[in-house]
């Protein structure tokens, strides 16, 4: 029998060995409808689990509903967390999108 403590995953199913990076949101109106939808579309191209953490809320980047309700504003710093077989490529793409 496997103990839940040995699972090594957090509440979003992301392993402790993931890659992380802090990014300043520079979109004029934050991650509102259009950039949120574009980010979800980009994230869905990857197999990895991708999460944005603003310190108050952890958001599944592949969920349009989660992204739309995230209320991430311009000037806010978020931590991008990526875990999976294509995590490095996914991280690079997500960070580049958030910095444009």
Say how many strands there are: 4
Write down the overall geometry: globular
Please estimate the helix content.
Answer: 25-40%
Structural class: alpha+beta
Largest sheet: 4 strands, antiparallel
- Low-pLDDT ranges: 1-8
State the end-to-end CA separation: 48 Å
Helix-strand pattern, N to C?
EHEEHEH
Strand content: 15-25%
Strand order of the largest sheet: 1-4-2-3
Rg from Cα: 14 Å
What's the rounded overall pLDDT mean?
Answer: 87
Total number of helical segments? 3
What is the fold's blueprint, element by element?
Layout: E1 19-24, H1 33-43, E2 49-53, E3 58-60, H2 64-68, E4 77-83, H3 87-99
Antiparallel strand pairs: 1-4, 2-3, 2-4
Describe it for me?
With 100 residues, this protein is α+β, with helices and mostly antiparallel strands. It is built from 3 helices and 4 strands. It has helices at 33-43, 64-68, 87-99, and strands at residues 19-24, 49-53, 58-60, 77-83. Strands 1-4-2-3 form a 4-stranded antiparallel beta sheet, covered by helices on one side. A hairpin with a 4-residue loop joins strand 2 and strand 3. It is globular.
Question: Concise description?
Answer:
By secondary structure, the protein is an alpha+beta fold. The protein has helices at residues 33-43, 64-68, 87-99, and strands at 19-24, 49-53, 58-60, 77-83.
């Amino acid at each position: 029998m496997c103990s839940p403590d040995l699972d090594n995953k957090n509440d979003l199913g992301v392993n402790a060995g993931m890659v992380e990076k802090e990014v300043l949101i520079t979109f004029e109106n934050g991650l509102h409808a259009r950039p949120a939808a574009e980010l979800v579309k980009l994230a869905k191209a990857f197999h990895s689990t991708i999460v944005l953490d603003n310190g108050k809320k952890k958001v599944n980047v592949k969920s349009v509903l989660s992204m739309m309700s995230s209320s991430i504003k311009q000037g806010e710093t978020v931590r991008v967390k990526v875990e999976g077989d294509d995590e490095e490529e996914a991280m690079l793409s997500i960070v580049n999108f958030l910095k444009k």
